[in-house]
Fold this protein.
Amino acid sequence: MGSFEEEPFVLENGNSKASRKESRHGKALITMSSSLRKKSDLSLVSRVRYPMLRHFLANLQEVVLGTKLSVVLPVIPLAFIARCYGFGRSWVFALSLLGVSALAERISFLTEQIAYFIGPTVGGLVNATCGNAPELIIAIFALRQNKLDMVKYSLLASVLSNMLLVLGTSLLCGGIANLRKGQKFNRRQAEVNCLLLLLALLCHSLPLLFRMGGGPAAVTAEPTLQLSRASSVVMLIAYLSYLVFQLFTHRQFFEAEEEQEDEEVGESEEAAVIGFWSAIIWLVGLTALVSLLSEYIVETIEDASNSWGISLSFNIMILLPVVGNAPEHAGAIIFAFKDKLDISLGVALGSATQISMFVVPLCVVAAWTMGINMDLNFNLLETGSLALSIGAVAFALQDGNSHYLKGLILILLYCVIGACFFVSNTPLNLVNLTDSATKGAIDAIFRA
């Protein structure tokens, strides 16, 4: 009989592990949460006499206590208490945001556990869907409340945060930790992601240019909307093609080149501790919690901004992505410290690509089905920030070498963009012109 730590695998799946070749390809997926995991002591749980109870307690301990962020998890019930008993709405926002941050890391852990059973090929698809679940859920709740500006700002913020803050901090920390020898990375992987980001930028820029050069807003609103929906379908097709390219036809482009990674990958392969169906059930449950906390965030973010005296655009553009994606960011930085820059690039650029090419067009299509007119016009300031950021990242990664100065420049660029939105006091409900009353007023002005 195997050790107790292996029991969930035997009970739920007799063939739990992918081939060695597939496991090597999926190293970035399967090792991502290992940077924040801590080994659970199952000695007490193993003494429980009843197998089903023992199995449940073991999974509970792995999911709840198997992370260094377990100290943050108590904020989740505190957020519910603050919401139910009418505490300050700024407290509800802060507690909910911290809770989403902790749950996002646990969702990442569960998707990695699922990848052990279905292999990294399909596991990559699961990770693409669940990796940015908090952003997608927040966007859907904002859509339901017709807060289109919040949807656009929050998704753009995640892209900028991953490209500039996460990637920049990874390059800076990795460069300082490896000051004498420098760092190299897989340039082909970076080129593919930058090409996709440029395509996303084109799809965001055309509706803006069309709106700016096509005459009155009331006249161009409908064509801009149709163009945005067509562009969203194109972006989704491009993203699906990217998944085929990454997972099937050119998977060698995305394999890290460092030989020393084999030891860490081998160690992480031994660490899968939750069975397939257990991981699915926990994933559904945690996603439901994220959905509830995301609804609290959407409801209270404006009141929190007013209470703290901070512009709403800064809260959405800077605070929301920095805190909400902190575990993922920390993992990327830790891998950069370990001279595993390919994994850090896969996290930062991969997440930015997922949001730009998958989450954003998916929100446009979802709004379309809900009868909401959401377009890809992210306004001049936001689109310009995205264009300059993509250009800076493309230049920084063009030679396949990295040093700390590149990371510092990206971080400073993010600080300048953050300062821009900090001083911006434009109300979000006046930023876009999708509101019917606003369009009607403008139309009346031009008729007069």
About this structure: The chain has a mean pLDDT of 77. The first helix runs from residue 7 to 12. The first strand starts at residue 183 and ends at 184. Residues 153 and 317 are 6 Å apart (CA to CA).
